[in-house]
Amino acid sequence: MDARTGLPVVGMVGAGQLARMTQQAAIPLGQSLRVLAVNADDGAALVCADVVLGDHRDLDALRRFATGCDVVTWDHEHVPNEHIRALAADGVVVHPGADALQYAQDKGLMRTRLSELGVPCPRWRRIGSREDLQSFGDEVGWPLVLKAARGGYDGKGVWVVDRPEDAAELLASGTELVGEEKVAIRRELAADVARSPFGQGATWPVVETVQQDGICVEVIAPAPSLPEDVADEAQQLALRIAGELGVTGVLAVELFETTDGRLLVNELAMRPHNSAHWTIEGSRTSQFEQHLRAVLDYPLGSTAPTARWTVMANLLGGPDDVEPKGIDERVHHFMAHFPDVKLHLYGKGMRPGRKVGHVTACGEDLEDLRARTRAAAEYLMNGGEL
Amino acid sequence: MDARTGLPVVGMVGAGQLARMTQQAAIPLGQSLRVLAVNADDGAALVCADVVLGDHRDLDALRRFATGCDVVTWDHEHVPNEHIRALAADGVVVHPGADALQYAQDKGLMRTRLSELGVPCPRWRRIGSREDLQSFGDEVGWPLVLKAARGGYDGKGVWVVDRPEDAAELLASGTELVGEEKVAIRRELAADVARSPFGQGATWPVVETVQQDGICVEVIAPAPSLPEDVADEAQQLALRIAGELGVTGVLAVELFETTDGRLLVNELAMRPHNSAHWTIEGSRTSQFEQHLRAVLDYPLGSTAPTARWTVMANLLGGPDDVEPKGIDERVHHFMAHFPDVKLHLYGKGMRPGRKVGHVTACGEDLEDLRARTRAAAEYLMNGGEL
Questions:
Q1: Which CA distances in Å does B239 have to A176, A312, B313, B319, B360?
Q2: Three-state SS for A57?
Q3: Which phi and psi (to 5°) does residue A82 adopt?
Q4: Which architecture characterizes domain B123-181 according to CATH?
Q5: Taking a contact as any Cβ pair under 8 Å apart, which residues of chain A between 29 and 68 contact chain B?
Q6: Is A151 on the interface with B (CB under 8 A)?
Q7: Taking the model in full, what pTM does it have?
Q8: Maximum CA pair distance of chain A?
């Protein structure tokens, strides 16, 4: 407990944009997030009072960080699972715990467990050799998808493979791989939920996540024209996974909606997730507040939407030679043109393709919201004329 | 400019709840507020990365603090006006500036200037002696109101006086006083606006501020049953005052609605203000974001309401021996009972009558919102049964 406030202390390992936005949500709860940052200029380290510098792969650093925290949670999946177990063995309260997190850290384990639970997934197989790949491809057809079992994100660690030869180098590298059929999809969806240690669950409306080159560029809440029974099915599925896997905190279930109308689980994330950034403005309780409530074992907040539609567009770093130069100058023009579009900058340096922020707008007219958030994101990153 | 983000640095002098909530609004703008804090455990010092300790009455401390800030603004009115002038003479960009702030710092100057502008005010007079008081009372009637010209807030520095003898001690103390007629009022209102150095203005809906013992306990947005032309008049008046006085940032104009339907200016504050805390959830742009936009001379954000009604109730510290003990325990029960009521705790120790936070709810049913925010505030501060 923080003697100054009479409230528990939440530590988040990792100091990226998720920790940064969690700090924003922590402030009104009377909290101030403690973060473990690799670098002093990580996005969350710039906005938190209590920053510990250290490597999340270093158990000593994790132990030092956890001292004085009432609960420790995660900004990413990269903390070694055995370190999470070691912290728990020390008596540190961790949410989500190692047993749950392993399924977000290892796609092979995730697929195995979901298959056991009868959760609909693309056909999949662990791929250790050219022969495995050939036989899996013969079964599900080409092209197929290969994924690194560990460490991938935002399209990294994912390869679409047309024939076994294309994966020769990858197979030789010793990367642990999972193969998945390349499903014919209508679109991608996400069902984001939260679950507390007490077992309380809460769902947000199912959203559509629009992808480009394997990276989410836009989220529409709720997913347009999604039949109510399919939305219900997705939410129930996400709650069931959260319960069966013992997830505490936010769980994002990325889904494929196939061309023949089935839902298949694509990925799991056990932390606040890009697909729910829209909740900051679009839901009575944001995913960041909800994650804090869940890991603190507080009762969860209302997830009622605040508007008919909410649209979020990611800011993906553009080229260096953008005109007008300088993000500050472009922020001026953005604000003049889009007085109701909300800006979220992550305090990260600009690099082509890097997620450096997002914008959100709420309202009644979906096409207008999409057009304006897209134009705003395009201008902020790539400049030009407005 | 912050080389890490390419964005300007805002410094706020004072580290109370207004700075704390400004930090919350700064994060999505890619900012992190720099604060000048008297104590390391001031509410905003607990949540900001860049905290300078020092006294806001010490020019050296202010100069040290201002170094590296692109703009300096204020959490309160207690910085000596001559120090603000000295900073500006040094080349520091300050918003609002000394010329504007003097009217928020000295009620005599404020009344003089507003009277010159023809702005409707209660009848008033500077009171230096028993004779002044007697003659002013003979003119406006008893009881009347005496206010300390400088340094009062939240009902402090305000006295209702039935006869000259009641003020004997006060007059002897040498406190500079302003007398005001005790106006027969229907209720109190506030017109909150923002103005940028460029001259752009923005208004929020006029609100009703419900007072108890001279302290605001509840704000209703918009003010119920306020005729549209009266609301327009109040907003125009506030924008006019902001322009004439050269205010930059948020200006709160506290108003009396008299029993005969006139609007009179009660007080001015040139900073985010309790009467606009509801904007965090209830407006597309919160007063804290708007204050930042204004002092940065960014274009102002949309002030469109996000709901039909928004109600805010202040959390005023209760007695020590409250059951259940401990704010954390009460927060649990509060969250279970009021999943859609938003909590804002300021990181301040509990003291009877002290503003330690507020709660906000948005919706369609005003009486329901009032009842629930009142019950929530009552329980969080005074415990008991829910």
A1: 64, 33, 26, 41, 26
A2: coil
A3: -65, -30
A4: 2-Layer Sandwich (3.30)
A5: 29-30, 32, 41, 45-49, 51
A6: no
A7: 0.97
A8: 64
Q: List phi, psi (to 5°) of B274.
A: -50, -35
Note whether B22 and B291 are within 8 A (CB).
yes
Place of tokens 């008299």: B258
Question: What confidence tens digit (pLDDT) does each residue in A128-183 have?
Answer: 999 999 999 999 999 999 999 998 666 689 999 999 999 999 999 989 999 999 99
| Contact (Cβ atoms closer than 8 angstroms) between residue A4 and residue B349 | yes
Instruction: Please count the helices (runs of H) and the strands (runs of E) in chain B.
Output: 12, 17
CA distance A207 to A222: 5
Assess: ipTM above 0.90: yes
CATH class name, domain A10-94: alpha beta
Q: Which of residues 288-327 of B touch A (CB under 8 A)?
A: 293, 298-302, 304, 306-307, 326-327
Q: What is the pLDDT of residues B302-340, one digit of tens each?
A: 999 999 999 999 999 988 888 898 999 999 999 999 999
Pairing of strands A50-53, A34-37: parallel
Tell me the chain A residues in contact with residue B304 when contact means C-beta distances shorter than 8 Å.
Answer: 340
Contact check, Cβ <8 Å, B299/A335: yes
Domain positions in chain B are 10-94, 123-181, 185-382
B213-250, pLDDT tens digit by residue? 889 999 999 999 999 999 999 999 999 999 999 999 99
Output DSSP code: residue A369. Answer: H
Which residues are CB-contacts of B170 (< 8 A; sequence separation ≥ 6)? B146, B159, B177
- Chain B residues near residue A362 by CB distance under 8 angstroms: 284, 306
- Domain B185-382 -> CATH class: alpha beta
Q: How far is CA B352 from CA B151, B372, B381, in A?
A: 21, 22, 9
Residues constituting chain A: 386
Mean pLDDT over all residues of chain B?
A: 96
Given CB atoms, is B197 within the 8 Å cutoff of chain A? no
Q: Which residues pair with A283 in a beta bridge?
A: A305
Cα nearest neighbour of A297 on chain B: B332
Query: Is the CB of residue B346 less than 8 Å from the CB of residue B17?
Result: yes
Q: With an 8 Å Cβ cutoff, are B327 and A6 in contact?
A: yes
